[in-house]
Design brief:
Blueprint: H1 17-28, E1 38-40, H2 45-60, E2 64-67, E3 73-77, E4 86-92, E5 95-99, H3 105-121, E6 129-134, H4 147-152, H5 156-164, H6 173-179, E7 199-207, H7 212-216, E8 220-226, E9 228-237, E10 241-242, H8 254-271, E11 278-287, E12 293-294, E13 297-306, H9 309-330, E14 333-342, E15 346-347, H10 350-362, E16 367-372, H11 378-381, E17 387-392, H12 408-427
Parallel strand pairs: 4-6, 4-7, 7-17, 8-16
Antiparallel strand pairs: 1-5, 2-3, 3-6, 8-15, 8-17, 9-13, 9-14, 10-12, 11-13
The protein binds glyoxylic acid and manganese (II) ion (3 copies).
């Protein structure tokens, strides 16, 4: 082989920051919402166009591109010892309704730019480097978060779920995937599972989605753990009826049952006594949804998270108990109480943290160890690979809304740290 002393010479790490910003702007154009908002939902036409754009950039960067049965996309740069476990990086490009253009995208386009940075610097990897675009980190269409990475991590449950699940328009996952050119055969789904030892490390670059780095004037967050997310789907049913004619004592209003449960979510979360426990009711739908009809069905979806898994599970138990109590006090039926997912937290890997810390030091950037309160594909990659995450500041911590913003300089720092970290890990 050849010899490499240090990963690469620091001074030669030059990021084309303006080029990266232009790519982010272009990608944001593949959207079903008017700018500055971005809506890009799994397997829609806009998602397919965005994927095509990313594959093109991977190709221009000299990566060999392959896709799996659900559309996880891999761009590979062969190392000098390609038989070794590779080092991977990546994130997602799907965007929840009316969100911004940086969430996930920085970790995909920034990863491709990190590869370009290393190539321009003359670096030659020992372990191969891979950029991954994960399918559907966001649960928007099928209610499943981190769909692509969850499947890569080997979830048998998910394989079964994906064979039967439908979206709100009653389109099956498999039909949706086929319309985007994937999942030609449903038996392909478990072929997505990663073989053990595929990756020696996985690193994800992401905007912080919180205000800490900006508030404290720190350039880089080094993530030590990702909080434990869970989501629940709940439905109540009542008799419905005429909004004028049915008197109050004779009602069993499924809408009020949902409203009461929504308030109870807040109450149970606050009862934990910790600022780290959070809960959100982001979906509340009433049927038939007419002003003069008592709701006969309600559907609510609850997101709850904590850095402490047990405490989060207590909240879920309390929500369940309250839902049952509401059926008694309001005479409604609890037709569904489904824990869609209840994921444990994931710790980052010591060696990956080390590599990221070394990178920030060598690059003279301020950094801080922190936890991730948002979930990421890294939560699942941690099941099959040592994992680490690099956070960069974002304006006021805004995310999941159009005002999301990260400066060119912050992105450039993140890409440099990522490039350096990948280089270092590829030589280990
Ligand atoms: C991911 O987008 C999350 O909700 O944390
Ligand atoms: Mn997101
Ligand atoms: Mn994200
Ligand atoms: Mn996320």
């Amino acid at each position: 082989g050849y010899s490499i002393h240090e990963p690469t010479s620091i001074s030669s790490l030059s990021v084309d920051a303006q080029g990266l910003q232009n790519q982010i702007d272009q990608l944001s154009g593949f959207s079903d919402a008017p700018a500055p908002a971005v809506t890009r939902v799994l397997y829609t036409h806009k998602d397919v166009l965005a994927r095509r754009y990313v594959k093109k950039l991977m190709g221009i960067a000299g990566l060999s591109v392959r896709e799996d049965a659900v559309g996880n996309i891999f761009g590979r740069w062969d190392g000098s010892e390609p038989e070794l476990a590779a080092v991977a990086t990546g994130s997602h490009i799907d965007a929840i309704p009316y969100s911004g253009k940086y969430d996930g995208v920085v970790g995909v386009l920034g990863a491709i730019e990190a590869i370009n940075v290393l190539k321009r610097s003359g670096f030659k990897p020992r372990r191969s480097l891979e950029v991954i675009l994960f399918t559907s980190e966001e649960p928007t269409r099928f209610g499943i978060s981190c769909l692509g990475s969850r499947l890569l991590a080997g979830s048998e449950n998910l394989v079964n779920t994906l064979k039967t699940i439908t979206d709100s328009q009653n389109i099956s996952f498999l039909d949706a995937a086929r319309s985007a050119g994937y999942a030609k055969d449903e038996n392909d789904l478990s072929s997505v599972f990663l073989k053990k030892g595929t990756y020696s490390a996985f690193v994800e670059l992401h905007i912080e989605q919180g205000p800490i780095l900006e508030d404290e004037g720190i350039s880089i967050g080094i993530v030590t753990a990702i909080a434990a997310p869970a989501s629940l789907r709940v439905e109540f049913e009542g008799n419905g009826g005429h909004a004028g004619a049915v008197l109050m004592p004779n009602r069993n209003d499924a809408g009020l049952a949902a409203a009461e449960l929504a308030l109870a979510v807040e109450k149970h979360v606050l009862e934990s006594g910790s600022i780290d426990t959070v809960g959100t009711v982001g979906i509340l739908e009433l049927h038939p949804g007419a002003i003069n009809s008592i709701p006969s069905k309600s559907h609510i979806e609850i997101d709850t998270r904590d850095i402490d898994e047990e405490r989060r599970n207590e909240v879920i138990d309390k929500i369940h108990e309250t839902a049952i109590r509401i059926t008694k006090t309001r005479g409604v039926k609890l037709s569904e109480f489904h824990v869609v997912n209840q994921d444990p937290p994931a710790p980052s890997d010591k060696a990956v943290i080390n590599a990221m810390e070394t990178a920030t030091k060598e690059l003279n950037l301020t950094s801080k160890l922190m936890i991730s309160r948002a979930y990421h594909d890294s939560l699942f990659m941690a099941r099959v690979s040592p994992m680490g995450m690099i956070f960069i500041p974002c304006y006021k911590g805004y995310s999941h809304k159009p005002e999301e913003y990260s400066s060119i300089e912050d992105m450039s720092n993140g890409v440099k740290v990522l490039a350096f970290t990948l280089a270092k890990l590829s030589l280990q």
